Amino acid sequence: MTILKQNRISMIAGTAILTIALAFGGFSFASHSFEAGVAEGTIPDNTHIRLDGMTLPAGGVFPLYDASPNYVSGHFLLTSPCEPVSEGDDTYQPLVTAIAGHIDEHASGTHMEPIPLFYINTVSSPTLAGNGDQCVFHAHIPDPLNGGAPRVTDIDLVNLSGADIEFKPGHIVDINIQRVLGSIADDPYTGGPVVDLSRNVIYDLNDADTENDGLGHSSQ
Amino acid sequence: MNKNKTQLFLVASIASVMVLAGVASEQAFAHGGQVIGFNLPNGEHRLITVIMGHNSEPTAAQETGKHDGKHPMELFISDTRTGLNLADADLTVDKFYYKNDKAFNKAVDKGFKPIETDVAVGAVHGDPGHYFARQILAQPGIYGYHVTGTVNYFGVMDVPIDVKAICRDAPDPSAFNNPSWFGGFGCTVDIDDSKFPGKKVKHDKDD
Question: Fewest CB atoms less than 10 Å from the CB: which of A28, A214, B91, B142?
């Protein structure tokens, strides 16, 4: 192999890595203004859950994570069957609803809200395959700017679609917990139960619509 | 029987650890604070909590060969609802000092004047939301701080900060503190005051 060929391969590989880094890392940097990450020398706690093979019936709940009594901060990733937020929209929402907050044994201390989700169109099936088989969503736990429960100990999936949801290979949840922010015993929810069972609010930084960008995301 | 004893011992041990842990955390965090409200650009209301005190309380003044007196004025700044730390701030502090109650009371009547103004308050490396104004406390007495500037709220906006408080053993802290201040931090003592037995302890000759 000539030096010229070697250089060309290196250049192609370098360009590919740079493209991937810009495509994913660029979005990540812009979207993580309130994620401090883990302290230096500490490994985050990661929970990876395969959903494939599961059928969640209408009204069904699938608990994903429970850090009680600690409320925590971190990052949430969901791949799910999806549909346009409204007919003809290029922003998609998951068929399943992701909720977070605190589920207490006392109803008055229970507080669950839909997680504000960011639709990642570049790696979702509407862009890649022209169908709604698999959309990728990110969320920040908690999201102080765009809503959702302020203190999160519990994360669940709920089927509010009115029909069974069948999960297939590639459908997963990944929860990366980076910091413990406090104890729900010290900062409890009161006056509950508050259980908001509306669909997730979806933000999209990559379409022409700037109304659904949410707060905290400067341009790339 | 033995099983019951073991269970009792375990319960007692856990209870002891919990009680001691609670006491320890109270001792380590003699600070006060303020909650500051503001509106996001979308109109939603948010709160920032600013906790202020001296690092490494209780504080004692510097004395050669006994104590270095290093007690930075420290702040912990976080989003009140979530507890997320706010790691980007542009702050300065005006520093106040009164030797004793008499000097403080005089200032209540004539007005509080800072000894130092616009001292930089910097972020503590590797500890988001934690800020120091580094200093050596040179004398025992009554110390107060007035912190002003802005805290950046997660890249969306700068929130004005105005936190003002004097140490809690001052004769009338409310004369100095911002009205919304809660809690308090300790005043600074002579290092010899914490000795045991101290110079003020006297015993009868028969003891």
Answer: A28
Contact B50, B150 (CB under 8 A): no
Distance CA B86, CA A217 (A): 16
Q: Is B47 an interface residue toward A (CB < 8 Å)? A: no
**Could you identify the residue written with the tokens 């022409």?**
A208
- Identify the three-state secondary structure at position B27: helix
pTM: predicted TM-score of the whole model, two decimal places: 0.80
- DSSP-assigned states of every residue in A176-187: EEEEEEEETTTS
Is the Cβ–Cβ distance between A217 and A119 less than 8 Å? Answer: no
Query: Distance (Å, rounded) from C-alpha B128 to C-alpha B84?
Result: 9
Q: Residue A1 pLDDT more than 90?
A: no
Q: Give me B40's structure tokens.
A: 């996001």
Lowest mean pLDDT among A39-53, A120-134, A167-181, B89-103: A39-53
| H or E element in which residue A97 lies | strand A97-102
Contacts of B40 in chain A (CB under 8 A): 145, 215
At residue B101, the 3 state secondary structure works out as helix
Look up the CATH number of domain A32-203.
2.60.120
**B38 — alpha (psi -120 to 50), left (phi > 0) or beta?**
beta
> How many residues are there in chain A?
220
Instruction: Supply the ipTM of this predicted assembly.
Output: 0.78
Contact between A193 and A108 under an 8 Å Cβ cutoff? The reply is yes
SS3 label, residue A215: coil
Question: Any alpha helices (H) in chain A, and if so which ranges?
Answer: 3-20, 26-31, 125-128
CA dihedral angle for residue B162, residue B39, residue A103, residue A157, rounded to 10 degrees: -140
How is chain A split into domains, by residue range? Answer: 32-203
Q: Would you say residue B11 has pLDDT above 50?
A: no
> In this structure, what token pair is assigned to residue A126?
């509407």
Q: E strands, chain B, where?
A: 32-39, 45-54, 73-79, 89-98, 116-123, 130-133, 142-153, 157-166, 182-183
Distances from the Cα of A207 to the Cαs of A29, A83, B58, in angstroms?
18, 16, 55
**Average pLDDT taken over every residue of chain A:** 86
Question: CB–CB of B126 and A36 under 8 A?
Answer: no
Query: How many angstroms separate the CA of residue B147 from the nearest CA in chain A?
Result: 24
Could you check whether the bond before residue B173 is cis, i.e. omega within 30 degrees of 0? no
Q: Which residues in chain A have Cβ-Cβ distances shorter than 8 Å to B156?
A: 33, 145, 215-216
Question: Which ranges in chain B belong to alpha helices (H)?
Answer: 2-28, 101-110
pLDDT at B28: 46
